[in-house]
Each structure stands twice: as C-alpha cells, then as structure tokens.
Amino acid sequence: MSELIEALRRGEGLAAWRQIADALEGEIAAGQLAQGAQLPTEAALAVRFAVNRHTVRRALAALAERGLVRASQGRGTFVEVPPLAYPIGRRTRFSEIVTGAGREPWGDLISQSEGAASPEVAAMLAVPEGAPLLELVTVHRADGVPLSTARTWLPLPRFAGFAGAYETSGSITRALAACGVPDYTRLSTRIRARMAEPAEAVRLDLTPGRAVIVVSSVNVDGEGLPVQANRAVFAADRVELVVGS
Hints:
The protein is α+β, with helices and mostly antiparallel strands. It folds into two domains: 16-79, Orthogonal Bundle (Arc Repressor Mutant, subunit A); 84-243, Chorismate lyase-like (Chorismate lyase). Helices cover 29% and strands 34% of the residues. It contains eight helices and ten strands. The chain has helices at residues 16-29, 42-49, 53-65, 94-100, 119-125, 162-169, 172-178, 198-203; strands spanning 69-72, 76-79, 84-88, 105-116, 132-142, 145-155, 185-195, 211-220, 226-235, 239-243. A hairpin with a 5-residue loop joins β8 and β9 (226-235). α1 (16-29) crosses α3 (53-65), α2 (42-49) crosses α3 (53-65) and α6 (162-169) crosses α7 (172-178). The longest helix has 14 residues, at 16-29. It is elongated and about 70 Å long. The model has no long low-confidence stretch (mean pLDDT 92).
C-alpha cells in the first residue's frame, strides 16, 4: 500500500469517504491487507488520502458495517478473519474447537454476582424458583478476536469456587473440573438470531445494530444433573454454527 498522497476524484458525485472505503475494500479483496492485519491509523489514512480524520472514520465505519473490518477499542482497526466452524453437539467445547482451528482460545471474566433464580433459569437448571445462583458475564476469544459473549448461571453452593477457577484458567471446562465436574454433556440447545444489544456490541467489537446468533444451552454432569445454563451471543460474521445430527 502506497504511503504517497492518493488523489481522490473530486466533483464526480462520489463522496470522499465512500472512495476511501472502496479503495480499502479493494485492497482487502486483493490480499494487500491480509486477514487479521491491522489497518494503518486514522491519522496515516488521513494523510494518504488528504482528508480529515472524520472522513476516514466514516469510511472505516462503512467497512465495519459490511463486516470487512473490526474496530477494537484502544488497539486499532483490523481486517476480519474468515468465520470459524463451530460444531454444536453433545460435547461442545469452546477451547477444543478454537484450538482445532489452529487458533488460541481464551475467556475473559467480565463480571460475577450471586442472585436468585428467575423462573426461566430455574427451569433450565431444574432448581426451585429463587434458588441461589452464581451468574457470570464472559467474553470468549480466538487469537484475541472476540467470538462470543455469554451469560452463565450455575447452582450454589456447589459452584461457589467457579468464578475464581474460570478467571485463572480462561476455560469453562477447566473451571467445571476444578469444581468436581470432570466431564459434562449438552442436554439442550436453542438457537435464534437478533440484533446486538449495545453492551454486547461493545464486548464483541461490533458496530451497533449488527446481527448476532444467540445460543441458549444447558449442560449436565455424568449423573444427568444440570450444572450450567448458558446464553452465548456470537458475532454472526465470525462463526459458522455446525449442528450435529
């Protein structure tokens, strides 16, 4: 990509920001800007195209709306990577799926709290309404790219140490093992699509209004007892859910 000032076509009815977006999209399509690569800074692009940073920002926002780039707060803007095939079955394991795709998995604990089971969550976990639960909000990444954010509920007091184990390991599977559940299977899965809520968009580095896939599930231990109810929100452009028969 040239560092020289690149002249835009003026007076032809095509806005400067759109010309910049089209030029960058062409470079992404041609592989000049590789998958996962960081784009030049807004300041550098403003110099390249001889425009102000507001014009560059609008061009980058248009690319983000098309699912071509991802703006990460405090880090910059990156070319999106191809969707990751994500199998949904009896043994769905985020870390195994991401590692199998040659990428590095990790989970961040955003918040933890204790509360009473709502009617919906109580039914999922087969506990009385109002029973004590641990609730976590997490973000799950592959090579640093957020794939999903989730809200997870676990019965108390059985999983009182779960949050600390998860924060240390970054893995649901390892945290469950630390709480005495060496293996678990998927009891049920429900999938739907909707637009990202504002907080979800921030955690997933999405522009507001982008589509997400919501996967609600219940996992059980070896004795068939529910151990985890989970509602994961996936960035729709970053995963391809594969449902096993």
